[in-house]
Amino acid sequence: MLTMEQVYRIKNMRKFEGKSLRRISEITGHDFSTVKKYAQKEDFNHEIRPTKKRQGKLSPHRNIVLK
Question: Do 28 and 17 touch, CB atoms closer than 8 A?
Protein backbone atom coordinates (compact mmCIF):
# COMPACT_ATOMS: atom_id res chain seq x y z
CA MET A 1 0.00 0.00 0.00
CA LEU A 2 1.32 3.40 -0.96
CA THR A 3 1.37 6.49 1.20
CA MET A 4 -0.86 9.38 0.20
CA GLU A 5 2.24 11.37 -0.78
CA GLN A 6 3.21 8.67 -3.27
CA VAL A 7 -0.36 8.51 -4.61
CA TYR A 8 -0.47 12.29 -5.07
CA ARG A 9 2.86 12.14 -6.90
CA ILE A 10 1.54 9.47 -9.28
CA LYS A 11 -1.70 11.39 -9.90
CA ASN A 12 0.25 14.64 -10.44
CA MET A 13 2.62 13.05 -12.96
CA ARG A 14 -0.31 11.55 -14.84
CA LYS A 15 -2.67 14.53 -14.85
CA PHE A 16 -0.44 17.61 -14.98
CA GLU A 17 2.82 16.36 -16.47
CA GLY A 18 1.10 14.05 -18.98
CA LYS A 19 3.42 11.12 -18.35
CA SER A 20 2.39 7.61 -19.39
CA LEU A 21 1.69 4.92 -16.83
CA ARG A 22 4.77 2.98 -17.98
CA ARG A 23 6.99 6.03 -17.53
CA ILE A 24 5.56 6.72 -14.07
CA SER A 25 6.20 3.08 -13.19
CA GLU A 26 9.83 3.41 -14.24
CA ILE A 27 10.34 6.69 -12.36
CA THR A 28 8.72 5.60 -9.10
CA GLY A 29 9.86 1.98 -9.12
CA HIS A 30 6.35 0.69 -8.49
CA ASP A 31 4.71 -2.06 -10.49
CA PHE A 32 2.71 -0.97 -13.55
CA SER A 33 -0.56 -2.40 -12.20
CA THR A 34 -0.08 -0.50 -8.92
CA VAL A 35 0.53 2.77 -10.77
CA LYS A 36 -2.51 2.14 -12.97
CA LYS A 37 -4.73 1.38 -9.96
CA TYR A 38 -3.80 4.55 -8.08
CA ALA A 39 -3.83 6.78 -11.18
CA GLN A 40 -7.41 5.77 -11.99
CA LYS A 41 -8.80 5.61 -8.45
CA GLU A 42 -10.99 8.55 -7.46
CA ASP A 43 -12.20 7.70 -3.97
CA PHE A 44 -9.75 6.36 -1.38
CA ASN A 45 -12.27 5.85 1.42
CA HIS A 46 -12.90 2.28 2.50
CA GLU A 47 -16.45 1.08 2.18
CA ILE A 48 -17.85 0.21 5.58
CA ARG A 49 -20.20 -2.71 5.32
CA PRO A 50 -22.67 -3.47 8.08
CA THR A 51 -21.85 -6.61 10.00
CA LYS A 52 -24.20 -9.52 9.57
CA LYS A 53 -25.48 -11.12 12.72
CA ARG A 54 -25.55 -14.86 12.33
CA GLN A 55 -27.74 -17.27 14.15
CA GLY A 56 -26.20 -19.28 16.99
CA LYS A 57 -25.80 -23.04 16.88
CA LEU A 58 -28.21 -23.58 19.74
CA SER A 59 -30.89 -21.19 18.46
CA PRO A 60 -33.11 -23.99 17.09
CA HIS A 61 -33.11 -25.56 20.59
CA ARG A 62 -33.43 -22.31 22.57
CA ASN A 63 -36.90 -23.13 23.93
CA ILE A 64 -35.72 -26.47 25.31
CA VAL A 65 -32.66 -24.99 26.99
CA LEU A 66 -34.54 -22.10 28.64
CA LYS A 67 -37.19 -24.39 30.24
Answer: no
pLDDT at 9: 96
- Structure confidence by residue, pLDDT tens digits, 4-44: 999 999 999 999 999 999 999 999 999 999 999 999 998 88
Which CA distances in Å does 53 have to 47, 56, 61, 64? 18, 9, 18, 22
* CA count, 13 A, side-chain hemisphere, 60: 1
DSSP 35-65: HHHHHH----PPP-PPPPPPPPTTGGGHHHH
Q: Where is 5: in which H helix or E strand?
A: helix 4-15
